[in-house]
Design a protein that fits this description.
Helices cover about 50% and strands about 0% of the residues. It is mainly α. The chain has a single domain, classed as Helix Hairpins. It is globular, with a radius of gyration of 10 Å. The two termini are about 20 Å apart. Pfam families: Sda (PF08970).
């Protein structure tokens, strides 16, 4: 996860929730988001990559 850009990390978080993936996986993403101090960006509209 360290290699993902902030945008891709946030997109992955939203997609993991949308797909109802493992809560452990979502928690790992959340922890990385908080480590990067970008939690305030969680609810912002993101452009899709690709």
């Amino acid at each position: 996860m360290k290699q993902l850009s902030d945008t891709l990390l946030l997109q992955s978080y939203h997609k993991a929730i949308e797909l109802n993936l493992s809560q452990d996986f979502i928690k790992q993403i959340e922890e990385e988001i908080h480590e990067r101090s970008i939690a305030h960006l969680i609810n912002k509209k993101l452009n899709h990559v690709g």
